[in-house]
Amino acid sequence: MGNVTIRILARELQLSAATVSKALADSHEISQSTKKRVLEMAAALNYTPNPYASSLRRKKSKTIAVVLPEVADSFFSQAIDGIEAIAQDKGYHVLVCLTHERAHKEQAILHEMLGGRADGILISSCSETTAPSSILELQEKGVPVVFFDRVCEELDTAKVVTDDRNSAYKAADHLIRCGCQEIAFLSISENLSISHERIEGYKHALDERGIKFSPENIIPCTHHAEDNVRLLKDILSKKRRPDGIIASVEKLAVQVYQACRELKLNIPGDVKVVGFSNLVTASLLNPSLTTITQPAFEMGRTAATLLFKALGNKSMDLSQNVLVIPSELQVRDSTG
Amino acid sequence: MGNVTIRILARELQLSAATVSKALADSHEISQSTKKRVLEMAAALNYTPNPYASSLRRKKSKTIAVVLPEVADSFFSQAIDGIEAIAQDKGYHVLVCLTHERAHKEQAILHEMLGGRADGILISSCSETTAPSSILELQEKGVPVVFFDRVCEELDTAKVVTDDRNSAYKAADHLIRCGCQEIAFLSISENLSISHERIEGYKHALDERGIKFSPENIIPCTHHAEDNVRLLKDILSKKRRPDGIIASVEKLAVQVYQACRELKLNIPGDVKVVGFSNLVTASLLNPSLTTITQPAFEMGRTAATLLFKALGNKSMDLSQNVLVIPSELQVRDSTG
Fold this sequence. Notes:
2 copies of one chain form a homodimer.
Chain A: H1 6-13, H2 17-24, H3 32-44, H4 51-58, E1 63-68, H5 74-90, E2 93-98, H6 103-113, E3 120-123, H7 133-140, E4 145-148, E5 158-161, H8 164-177, E6 183-187, H9 193-208, E7 218-220, H10 225-237, E8 244-247, H11 250-263, E9 272-276, E10 290-293, H12 296-312, E11 322-324, E12 328-330
Parallel strand pairs in A: 1-2, 1-3, 3-4, 4-5, 5-11, 6-7, 6-8, 8-9, 9-10
Antiparallel strand pairs in A: 10-12
C-alpha cells in the first residue's frame, strides 16, 4: 500500500483537503458528522499523519531530545529512566543522542535540533565542550534547554545538579578518617564544571585536616580504558604511591580495581578506593565499592519536569531554576 | 533573531525561492556564481535548513533509529557503540528509542517512524512483542528494517543474531561438567526467539548427559529486580534447590548474587552460576562471574552495515541476510 495522504482522503471523501485537514485537527469549523466521516475513512485507509508535515504546520514534534555523552554509565542510564518516566506521562517521545564526549558531535546534534526535530532539549555536556553558541541559538528560536549534571555555567538556563563539591569533600574526608595521607583524585576533564567543583571539595577536605595539596595527585585520565589502566599501574608502582584514590567517574573506579588486580595490590589494605558511581554491582564487587551515589533517576525526573513546565509556559524564565539534589556516601569494604 | 527561511534569503538576494532552494541543493540548473551568492548570504544570515521541510522535499532524514528495550544492560550499550561507529562513518545521526520491554511503546515508536522520522530502523524486540504489523508497514513504505539479537522470526528481513542455542548448550554442559545435577534456567520471556533457542540448547545438554529435564527448572522472571530476588530466595531456600543456575539475562545474574548473599549461600560452593553478560565488572565480582559473552559491538556494527547497504540499494533483498556471530564461554570463579 502506498502513502495515504490528506489529498487522497479528500478525493475519496469528495471534500477539500483543507476540510479534511481541519477535521483531523478537530477544528471547531467542521461539523461533528463530517469529522466522523473523515476519521472513519482515515481508519479504513490506514492513514498515518506525516510528522514532518504536521510538525511544519503545528511547529510541534511531540518529542524531546536528551543529549549526553554515553549510555554505558549507570548514572546516565538511570537519568534517562527518570526523564522517560515524565515524558511518558506527557505523551512525548524521547530521542537519546550520544556525543561520546566529542564537541563536534555535540555541535552537530544541537545544530540538527535547530530545525525543529525536538520541542525541547535536556543536555549533559560532553567533556570537550567549549562554545555554547548552538545552545544560545536554540534558546533564541524558543526551544527550551535544561542542563543536568554536567552544566555549562555561562549559560542562563535551568540546571539540575548534585552537590559535587560537598560530595568530593565527603569522599576525601572519609579517606582521611580511614588513615589515608596520599590521596589521588582521578579526573576526566578539566573543562567540566563538575570536575572543578569536585576538585575544590577534595582540596577543602585536605586543607581542613592539615594535609598539603600536591597538584600531581590530580590525575588526568582519558576515555580509553587501556590507557587509564596503564597510567594507574604506573602511579601505583611508584615508591611513593597513593594510599587512597577518589575515582570521579564510574569507569575509573573499575579501572582502579583492574590495575590493583594486575599489580596484586590489596584493596583496601594497600590502597583504599571511593568511586562516584551508581553501579548496581557496587556491593557485589571484590571488595564491595564505597561510593558517592548520585540521585541519577531523580535528577533526570527533575530536569524533565522543568523542561515540560517551560514547554507549557513560553514566558517561563528557566534561568531562575538551579536545583541541587544531594548525593550520598555509601561506605563499603573498599575503604576498609 | 527570527527564523531565516528560503523565502527571506530569496527576498534579500532578489531571486526566486525556487532558485535559492536549487542553489542550496547544488543543482546543475544553477550557475556557480549564483550558488556562491546564495551560500554567502545563507552564511551571513545564519540560515539553518529546516530538516522537516527538507525531509519532505528530499524524503531523507539522514537519521537511523535504534529501537531497543533499555540501555542499562551492557549488551545493548555496547551494541549501540557498534551501530554508531558505522553511522558516524556514513554521516548519519542515530536516534535511540527505548521500549522498556512494552509492546505498546514499541508500537508507538514504530508508528512514529512511519512518518519519515528515520530512513532506516535497527530493532531488538521488546519481550512483549506479538504483532509485526508496524514493521510490515515500514517495509511497505520502503523503510529498511534490520533486527539484531532479539528477532521476530516470522518477518522476512535481515537478522543479526548470536548462536543462542549453542551458547546455552555450552553453559549447561559446563555446569554439568562442574558436577551440577539440578540446573535452573532463569528466563525473561516466553515470547522471545532467543529464550526458545537458549532453552532448547539447555535441554539438549541435559539430554546428552542423561539428566532428566524438569519443566519447573525453567524459572520465569520479571523485569522487576525486587520480585526476582524474592523469587530466587524462595527457590534457593527449598530443600531440593538448584546447584547450578544459568541466568539468561545480565541483570538476572546480578540478582542471583544478591539472593545468595542475603541467604548466605556460597557461590560456587553451594550453587554455581553462569550469566549471559557483557558486564565490564564480571571479572571483578565476588566471586568473578563465568559468562557467555556476546559479540555485542560486532552485532551492532554488522546490523548497521546491512542497514546502510539496503539504504544504498533499494532493490536489495534484506531477507537473504541472516547472520550468526558466535558468543564465547568465559570460565571464571562462579563455577568453581
